[in-house]
Design a protein that fits this description.
By secondary structure, the chain is mainly alpha-helical. It has 14 helices and seven strands.
């Protein structure tokens, strides 16, 4: 199977050459992935616009661009890893098949008493400049015994007969129910013929009529054990005219091969099955073990891996966006409470938002980042640098986040920005609703956690039961 070695070696050579060239020109470990991004269609690693929409307004423009580029590089590296792995698999399969492609002279027969084996082989027939190949399935019969071995086997089986025929009886001296008088032993092939000295008490099929016995009656069983495997073969001779036409020679070779295969299928012997090297009239036979072709399975697995990677190309971006949204929803009730507190203390809306952003920057330096407060700080920076209005920034942020809670907040602030007390009251009501929703979400997560713990608890229960009953089982 040189095709596997050629395909695998060629692919590995292409990978290493591209990697070396890309690394030399970019001096970066991701150079090959960056190079392939320029060569292959962009849709293969994910649509940039779709990724941007998932995170639009949630992170800065430069950060978003770097984030999308990193995800595309990561997706491309997955494709390259799949390419490399399957190239190595092709080489390994090729090496294995090459090792199996050895000329064979014999096929080991199964042991006596076993089922016949079906061995898949490949035979290459050569005659002159002509060569044909055929895939053959040979039926290899089990090894045959010598006369002495057959006698020893029959004697050993006869010695065990008193135990074999007992069925539900305790011993041959306490026969109360029917016996198991076998006609043939499937393991050894021994055929048995039974006779009874008193068929009215014990029939030849093993039935025992114990009602006819007044006290005790002695009955003798006679078994004839036969182990024979003699077969007779018939040979038909034909007269064949010389014909040098290539099409005829091929047909002739196929016919002779079919005759030989039928002969080999029916052959028996004490040793291995010998495969002839010639088939008469200058016909040369070369026999090989038929190797398994893994190409379809490898191609299907390769395509499935590529398809899975393609389908999952947006997974990382969507996961990040979902994580940010969940974090924002989780932090929003606390933010509303702080905002209402500052408004009640007399601060105006813009000053209250600025105060919350400054406090976050001061107390949260080098700590775990909170997306909501990070976005609020960026909003304050944009308002300071562009002199944009607060209401417009809030609306833009609400649309970018896609969260109904943020949209309601932006609407309430926009409609009541000049009504301090009214705004505080409405936001306080909104805050109560948010805290209630957060409590319900926590309860749902708690119930979900309980459901996920059912399987581990069942496993622990089974382990506990096994530990409890194990000593009792061991002492039985």
């Amino acid at each position: 199977m040189m095709i596997y070695l050629i395909l695998g070696g060629l692919n590995l050579a292409i990978i290493f050459v591209l990697y070396y060239w890309a690394f030399k020109n970019s001096n970066c470990k991701h150079g090959l992935a960056i190079l392939m991004l320029k060569i292959l269609p962009a849709e293969l690693t994910g649509n940039v616009l779709r990724m941007a929409r998932s995170n639009h307004g949630l992170i800065g423009e430069q950060e978003l661009s770097d984030h999308i580029q990193n995800i595309k590089i990561n997706n491309m590296e997955k494709y390259l890893i799949i390419w490399f792995i399957f190239s190595c698999l092709f080489i390994l399969v090729g090496i294995q098949n090459y090792g199996d492609q050895q000329a064979i002279k014999t096929i080991e027969r199964p042991e006596f008493g076993s089922q016949k084996d079906k061995v898949q082989v490949e035979v290459i027939i050569e005659k002159g400049n002509l060569s044909i190949s055929e895939d053959i399935v040979l039926n290899v019969n089990p090894k045959q015994l010598t006369t002495l071995q057959k006698q020893e086997l029959i004697n050993a089986y006869a010695a065990k007969l008193p135990e074999i025929i007992l069925a539900d009886n305790n011993s041959t001296n306490e026969i109360k129910s029917s016996l198991d008088l076998k006609k043939k032993d499937l393991k050894t092939g021994i055929e048995l013929t039974w006779q009874s000295s008193n068929p009215e008490i014990i029939r030849e099929d093993g039935f025992v009529n114990s009602l006819m016995v007044e006290n005790t009656t002695r009955v003798s069983l006679f078994a004839e054990l036969v182990l024979g495997d003699v077969k007779e073969l018939a040979e038909i001779k034909t007269k064949v005219l010389n014909n040098s036409d290539s099409s005829y020679i091929k047909e002739f070779l196929h016919i002779r091969l079919d005759e030989l295969i039928n002969k080999l299928d029916g052959s028996t012997g004490r040793g291995s099955l010998y495969l002839p090297a010639e088939n008469g009239q200058g016909t040369i036979l070369n026999w090989y073990h038929k190797t398994q072709d893994y190409l379809p399975q490898l191609l299907i697995l390769f395509l499935l891996s590529i398809a899975m990677t393609y389908v999952q190309r947006y997974a990382k971006t969507e996961k990040l966006a979902k994580k940010r949204q969940e974090s924002i929803i989780r932090e929003f009730p606390d933010f509303i409470s702080k905002f209402v507190l500052l408004l009640s203390a007399g601060l105006v809306v813009s000053t209250a938002l600025k105060k919350i952003a400054l406090n976050y920057d001061y107390y949260n330096e080098n700590k775990f980042k909170k997306p909501l407060y990070e976005d609020l700080a960026k909003m304050q920076e944009r308002m300071r640098s562009t002199n944009a209005s607060l209401t417009q920034e809030l609306k833009n942020y609400a649309e970018a986040s896609g969260l109904k809670e943020i949209m309601r907040f932006a609407t309430i602030v926009s409609d009541n920005i000049d009504k301090g007390s009214t705004l505080a009251e409405k936001l306080e009501a909104e805050g109560s609703l948010l805290w209630h929703n957060r409590k319900k979400k926590a309860e749902e997560l708690g119930r979900l956690a309980e459901t996920k713990l059912v399987l581990p608890l069942m496993i622990l229960l089974l382990v506990l039961i096994m530990i409890t009953i194990a000593p009792a089982l061991i002492t039985m």
